């Protein structure tokens, strides 16, 4: 075993962050994955490996045949998952080893985040790090005994053969190790009930932000080092903190980061939308896959940042990104697809990372003709923008004003040229082989994109954004939401097969609350309450006052765990805690506010130790530290007045409204037939109603 783990340590770092290229060929084999709907699983359906989908059938077969299980986890847009498939899983020698000794299970981590989290925790315990592809060997009962990420063919074969030899000769060693590892997995992501009194008004948020700022990249934005991930929820919190504290230095860092990301090759300068991360410090060369969840959160972030700064660049980014979502990532039912692959075929019919997105100077010169001189300066078709093999990833350094002055052209002329360039290059690019599309639909990611559309509508007022949001909300409510408040996680070809996880409830509740606040259609608010009640009944731990990631209706994989640390996507528990805080303002006597407060108390100590992993919790903390307002508008002009509110950045309010008289604690005795009145309330105390939106907004803060 010691040899195996020493070997593993030399291979663990060769995963998804590398840039090695792949080729793909077909095989005359078919396995059990052919019956699945996940594009990632279907990509492996013709491997010679006898893959099976994760489930009770595979586990029972392993127990019956007393075989070890290989669990291989990846996702459709993962470049190195494809590399390992080509090098190992398409190879008949590898397949013979796996088929003889193991039950082999393929998992789409996006479909089964519960499976992924359990085994990624295991590999982190074993090796200190993990990533995708994630490859784990388990006992027949599913408990892990060994694992790693990407392996070359011979290394993979050697590792499997050594594991099998140990299992044949000294199975007790593997069983003993599995027992120890199981205890380790159970101890991870544990949260203890914090019974101490915590005064959130005295929590050292400013000191935490100051400590965070020590790691800011002052030149390129974001945090120091590479690769660079965008971390939208970190930036959302910093934006709010800068606004509420009137901290110009912090706001400058947020806008520097947003500017550099928008200028970088990380952003698709031709077609809109962001790649998953940048491989370098200047946001230039991306890992080219495009994920729905990144773009959803960034639409919200840039919309909010526009409200604070009024920068035209941020409006442009939102418009182009939503154009990409509508064009490439939306199905006829209003659902959103999951991702676009990093890889596509180049001019030699070879799969290459980024082939779809990059250009040679010769191509650009031919396409843009007399405009090429301006274009190459604008997008740095020079040593600054060069990637490899005479190919360029378009990246900006200068503002529009600087380009206008340099070439003596007006703003109107440059904007017309930019539009023409993008249309020309998009049409040309679309003739290339396109990256593979992962066309499954996930409730959690759809809800994030729904919220993105709502936030964009609030900021820019475009009806098409609200229409897209309503269509998606209808899709979720009719296809994914069951009568009892339960959600499905996945959807494809009219079929939903996996029960929802906490992330599905958290993000859908959040999106539906936001949709209510712009439409005033109580259907969305009531559905949010219904889902929250279901989540509390089926996910909530009464002892620890946190929500498990999986429902009590689903079998635990080794153990049930709490997802509470924020990452590229906010943790499901932090989103749920914020939801309960907001719902408690709409629905009295639910106990939601006490649960939200206790959840925040539970993580409060760890926030101080690792603040960058708790940015969404810090955003919730701001609700407790500062005044949080209920704004209720009643009267015939309610919709127009809400639109006026939406033109301002107001992170510390909820909105409710009605055209006429309505029952409920927020509306009682507030209707006046001849006026549209605005009530601003905080801590159950309301100011005198006003009709002027400007006066009401000024009473919320002194920054407007």
Walk me through the topology:
Blueprint: H1 2-11, H2 39-43, E1 52-53, H3 56-65, E2 68-74, H4 79-89, H5 92-101, E3 102-108, H6 113-127, E4 134-138, E5 144-148, H7 153-169, H8 171-187, H9 205-213, E6 228-229, H10 232-244, H11 248-263, E7 277-278, E8 286-287, E9 290-291, H12 292-309, H13 312-328, E10 339-340, E11 343-345, E12 351-353, H14 361-368, H15 372-378, E13 386-388, E14 391-392, H16 400-407, H17 411-429, E15 437-438, E16 441-442, H18 443-460, H19 463-480, E17 490-491, H20 502-519, H21 522-539, E18 540-541, E19 546-547, H22 572-586, H23 592-609, H24 615-625, E20 629-634, H25 638-645, E21 653-658, E22 677-682, E23 685-686, H26 693-700
Parallel strand pairs: 1-3, 2-3, 20-21
Antiparallel strand pairs: 2-4, 4-5, 6-7, 7-8, 9-10, 10-15, 11-12, 13-14, 16-17, 18-19, 20-22, 22-23
Helix pairs in contact: 5-7, 6-8, 7-8, 10-11, 10-12, 10-24, 12-13, 12-18, 18-19, 18-20, 19-20, 20-21, 20-22, 22-23, 23-24
Would you kindly provide a brief summary of this structure?
It comes from Aequorivita antarctica. By secondary structure, the chain is of the alpha+beta class. It has four domains: 32-189, Glutaredoxin (3-Layer(aba) Sandwich); 200-348 and 438-625, Glycosyltransferase, CATH 1.50.10.20; 357-431, no CATH class; 629-701.
Descriptive notes:
The chain is an alpha+beta fold and 704 residues long. 49% of the residues lie in helices and 11% in strands. The strands form eight sheets. The chain has a five-stranded mixed beta sheet, sandwiched between helices. Strands 21-20-22-23 form a four-stranded mixed beta sheet, with helices on both faces. Strand 22 and strand 23 form a beta hairpin. The N and C termini lie far apart (64 Å). The chain has four domains: 32-189, 3-Layer(aba) Sandwich (Glutaredoxin); 200-348 and 438-625, Glycosyltransferase; 357-431, no CATH class; 629-701. Residues 444-541 form the Non-reducing end beta-L-arabinofuranosidase-like GH127 catalytic domain.
């Amino acid at each position: 075993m010691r040899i195996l783990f020493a070997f593993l340590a030399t291979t663990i770092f060769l995963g998804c962050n590398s840039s090695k290229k792949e080729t793909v060929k077909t095989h005359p084999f078919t396995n059990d994955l052919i019956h699945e709907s996940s594009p990632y699983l279907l990509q492996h359906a013709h491997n010679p490996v006898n893959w099976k989908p994760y489930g009770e059938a595979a586990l029972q077969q392993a127990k019956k045949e007393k075989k070890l299980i290989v669990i291989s986890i990846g996702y459709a847009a993962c470049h190195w998952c494809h590399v390992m498939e080509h090098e190992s899983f398409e190879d008949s020698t590898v397949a013979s080893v796996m088929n003889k000794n193991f039950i082999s299970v393929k998992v789409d981590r996006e479909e089964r985040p519960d499976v992924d989290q359990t085994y990624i925790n295991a590999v982190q315990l074993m090796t200190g790090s993990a990533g995708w592809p994630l490859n784990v060997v388990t006992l027949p009962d599913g408990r892990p005994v060994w694992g790693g990420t990407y392996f070359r063919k011979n290394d993979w074969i050697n590792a499997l053969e050594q594991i099998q030899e140990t299992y044949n000769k000294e199975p007790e060693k593997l069983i003993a190790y599995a027992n120890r590892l199981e205890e380790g997995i159970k101890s991870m992501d544990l949260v203890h009930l914090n019974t101490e009194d915590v005064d959130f008004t005295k929590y050292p948020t400013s000191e935490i932000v100051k400590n965070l700022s020590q790691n800011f990249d002052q030149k390129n934005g974001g945090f120091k080092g590479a690769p660079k991930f965008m971390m939208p929820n970190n930036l959302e919190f910093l934006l709010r903190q800068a606004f509420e504290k009137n901290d110009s230095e912090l706001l400058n860092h947020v806008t520097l980061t947003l500017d550099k990301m928008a200028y970088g090759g990380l952003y698709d300068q031709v077609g809109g939308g962001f790649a998953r991360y940048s491989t370098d410090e200047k946001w230039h060369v991306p890992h080219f896959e495009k994920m729905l969840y990144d773009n959803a959160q960034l639409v919200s972030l840039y919309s909010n940042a526009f409200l604070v700064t009024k920068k035209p660049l941020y409006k442009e980014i939102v418009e182009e990104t939503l154009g990409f979502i509508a064009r490439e990532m939306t199905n006829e039912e209003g659902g959103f697809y999951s991702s676009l692959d990093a890889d596509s075929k180049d001019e030699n019919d070879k799969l290459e990372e980024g082939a779809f997105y990059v250009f040679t100077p010769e191509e650009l010169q031919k396409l843009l003709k007399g405009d090429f001189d301006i274009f190459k300066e604008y997008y740095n078709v020079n040593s600054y923008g060069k990637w490899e093999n005479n190919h360029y990833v378009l990246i900006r350094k200068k503002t529009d004003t600087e380009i206008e002055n340099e070439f003596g052209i007006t703003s109107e002329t440059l904007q017309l040229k930019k539009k023409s360039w993008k249309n020309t290059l998009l049409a040309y690019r679309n003739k290339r082989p396109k990256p593979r599309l992962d066309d499954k639909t996930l409730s959690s990611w759809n809800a994030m994109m729904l919220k993105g559309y709502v936030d964009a509508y609030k900021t820019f007022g475009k009806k098409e954004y609200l229409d897209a949001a309503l269509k998606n909300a209808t899709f979720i409510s009719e296809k994914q939401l069951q009568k009892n408040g339960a959600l499905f996680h996945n959807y494809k070809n009219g079929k939903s097969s996996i029960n929802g996880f906490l992330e599905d409830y958290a993000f859908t509740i959040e999106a539906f609350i936001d949709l209510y606040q712009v439409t005033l259609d109580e259907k969305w608010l009531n559905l949010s309450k219904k889902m929250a009640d279901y989540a509390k009944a089926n996910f909530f731990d009464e002892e620890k006052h946190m929500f498990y990631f999986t429902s009590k209706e689903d079998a635990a994989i080794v153990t049930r765990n709490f997802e509470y640390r924020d990452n590229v996507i906010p943790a499901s528990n932090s989103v749920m805690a914020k939801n309960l805080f907001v719902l408690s303002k709409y629905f009295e006597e639910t106990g939601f506010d006490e649960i939200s407060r206790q959840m925040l108390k539970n993580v409060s100590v760890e926030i101080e130790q690792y603040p960058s992993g708790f940015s969404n919790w810090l955003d919730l903390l701001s609700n407790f530290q500062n005044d949080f307002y209920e704004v209720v508008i009643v009267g015939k002009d309610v919709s127009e007045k809400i639109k006026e509110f939406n033109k301002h950045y107001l992170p510390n309010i909820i909105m409710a409204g009605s055209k006429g008289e309505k029952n409920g604690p927020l509306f009682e005795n507030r209707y006046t037939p001849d006026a549209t009145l605005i009530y601003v309330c905080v801590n159950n105390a309301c100011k005198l109603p006003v009709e002027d939106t400007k006066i009401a907004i000024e009473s919320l803060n002194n920054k407007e």
